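pinned: reference chain
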Amino acid sequence: MVSKTPVIISTDPGVDDIVAILLALASPELEILAFITSFGNTDAESSRRNIFKTYQAVSRHLEQFPEDASRFPNFGAQVILARGSAGPLEGEVHSAQYFHGRDGLGEITERHPELDVQDQLPQLILSDSTGSQVAAELIRTRAPRTITYIALGPLTDLAQLMAEHGDLVRDRIGRIVCMGGALDVPGNTSPVAEFNFFADPYAVKNVLIENPKTLVPLDRFILLPLDITTPHEFPFPYYKDKIDPSFETSTQPSDGATKSPLVHFTSSFLEQARVVMLAFGKDAMELHDIVAMWCAIENPPGVDTLAVGWKARNRVFDIERTGELTRGMLVVDRREDASAYAPGVNRAAVQAELEQQNFAHATFESTAVPALVETEQEPTTDSSDGVLCVYRTPGPAALLDLLTSRVWGVSV
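pinned: its structure tokens
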């Protein structure tokens, strides 16, 4: 029997978070120990309620279709539900309610009041401890270096865990998988920043860059930035064709009487996500958090190399915390590019020297580096230091097949 990877899921659900959690519930490779719900896509209380809504939907589905129980091997076990942070380490609270809605799921219960939480669910153990306390206790009591901590939201709770129990985590955590940041591509919440890192850049600075006391063990940390997650999409016409033939948008809400409880639940939040994405000119949802969950499934701790089809390399960057326009931006020193000046030099000083020598500037000035958007292209900078960043997966089609078959039981 293949051993399961015990996981702690730090999340701010959120549309793509919920799909990622459904994938976790449907993945026999994992053992879900705890959810830590925080601010982010919505407020912390709505995030917590969305875990209940998800478990309630799966419970109702299995009551109606008990033969599907084997499809959700992680649903029967009890899981700790802990409260995470309500805001960043410093500064104002920012949310992604512009995409996910006030409740995180596109106002799902306004259109579908039957999907609001009705009953206490026996699978969820409500903890009075903080998220960092729950995570520390699990890391302390489980076998060393077996747990994967999956960060799908802002890194505030991970930063608090490292501040309070840094030595414990560095000694005993198996792996940390994080979705966040944008290196060589535009941001999604601003022109330069990905939302999770924008929501708490102070936490990112503490755990990945600056403070030795709160630094995560980088030899066991994997980052999945927008560079690799954005090309993985869930086309809504595909969902309509393969999963819910009646699926449209929130202007034509899902009818629970005509489909299974699980499909009704997912259609009821995807229908509003479709409205938002169509406004951006795309009839598909990007699978950011789902790619991170997939990475955790396929790359358990204790294995030195990534699974077949996965590639990553170390990238060195810093993060802007206070910029009026650049909050959350990952700053990469591109002076080591072949088209740039000599590595590490001050460009202003070099330019002044060139001017003194009356050189024409054009052949010496750095050229703009275009954003890398294709998964098969490798990053332009690499280092033995820095953070391990995934730049290749087995491919968007492979994830789409896995997601469709596991969550909805549809073979493609």
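why pinned: The longest helix spans residues 44-64. The chain has one domain: 5-325+381-408.
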